[in-house]
Request: fold
Amino acid sequence: MRVICLVPSLTETLIECGIEVIGRTRFCIHPIRQVKGIPVVGGTKNVDWEKCKILKPDLVVFDREENPKEMADSCPFNWHATHITSVDNIADELIRLADKVESSQLLEMAIKLNELASKPNLKTIDWGNVPGQIESIGNNLNSYKRIEYIIWRDPWMAVSSDTFIGSMLERLGFSDYLSNHTKPYPELSTEDMNNPDTFYLFSSEPYPFAKHKDFLLNTDINGAIIDGEVYSWFGIRSYRALNEYLTNIKI
Reply:
């Protein structure tokens, strides 16, 4: 089956499961070697359907959180949209996708993901070895009462527990530290960003905090630069992360 995928994490997942992906977004950067040969047909918020027509896809894959509804409404091909909102529903969504792309390998991974999702959350945090940590920028590491997962700067933006990232944070040991935000992606004030009781996780995406280490190192903020793909890329990445941190087995 010839598939165009407009969801970066699912593009990687489909390729890893042996599906023929013939079109992608410019943000579909994994697996690096394979995606180099796959044509770019747009981004996650826009697409060039004329380019897609040349590729003659059997199916176009969207996600409701990743892509705007207008893209699916304008799609001239058969399409399927996942709606992955938490660790708890990712397996069901991937099972549906596996049926659409006729992949036993994806189905097998989804079943294993379901088993991982049923495991209890981690209960303790090693603040010096936070899952997905790229670089520590903090000190006084055992005195925190809450965490903020930061995805943007100017304005500062965080995530709530009511997001896929939030569900990953809960699974990986942060349940007792998450702030009670009423919005999925709240804006934070300067005062919010200077709380000595808070440990700040600066995600490598969508804002590239990993490329702005100098700025972070020159602040009084206690925190760490985090690999955003560990927490926000559902599919093969979340499977690997949950398997590594919940079972201590790297795959």
